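Suppose you are handed a protein chain with no further information: no name, no annotation, nothing but its sequence. What can you learn? This example shows the usual starting point.
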Amino acid sequence: MSFRRAVRLVCGLAGGSAVLVAVAAAADARGTFGDAGSRESPRKWTSLAVLQAAQTWTSGNQHTVPPSGNAWDHNWDKREPLSLVNTRKKEEKQGSSGDLSAELDSNKPKATRHILLIRHSQYNLNGSGDKERTLTALGRQQAELTGQRLAELGLKYDVLIHSTMMRATETAQIISKYLPGVEKVSCDLLREGAPIEPVPPVGHWKPEAVQYHEDGARIEAAFRRYIHRADAKQKEDSYEIIVCHANVIRYFVCRALQFPPEGWLRMGLNNGSITWLTIRPSGRVALRTLGDSGFMPPDKLTRS
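A reasonable first move is to predict its three-dimensional structure. Written in structure tokens, the prediction is:
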């Protein structure tokens, strides 16, 4: 059997191009292909030799990562319909499955929530306080570009919520020019902070333990207020914009996807970027974009 035919046989058995690469590498390491100008004739490559070379790549799961074993919590937002029915009522209605079914249906979400998390634009890092940490000229340009992008998406936005910190407020004000008629709301819970001690730790940023304790509770409260499946009374899909901060957004993403929250600092977000979370009626969460800033020219991109 020719080498090429043997490879086709192996790939057919293994079902992937990765095997072809592995077999080719093994063949090359053994000097099977030989050099064109070599006087020594290369060893004949038989189908048995091909199968032996590929064996370690096709047998067992030693080259795969085992599952974590962490199951998805379907009631992560405490809005699973069954959990919203009063326990006493459930016991009373055990003999009347029709009534219980009707109540469960009345508590069942029917709409999808789309949450677009916007990181504020570049700001003056030298300001002595929050009021002096206003957007830079470049930051204002970034906010304009983000506002244009949101308008171009052509979505029917329901509300624009923003952190009360100066850089987020200014960013929201500029964005709102491109979204006339969209209600603008401020919220203290969305202010920047230290949500949870990051793992692995970083040397350049080490808040006091009390800051994690205080900020963490506040940012978690913001998560519970804004990141959840739709209310059962909501009839149509919603699109909500939240302008806030990198730490808050990264923590929200980890919590919503049920990833370890202490891994939030492993992600980076550009100023003015868009992170899009989708929450289905079933409670399933999808991350459509993370820190999208492809709508900005390269010379406008910053992370400060």
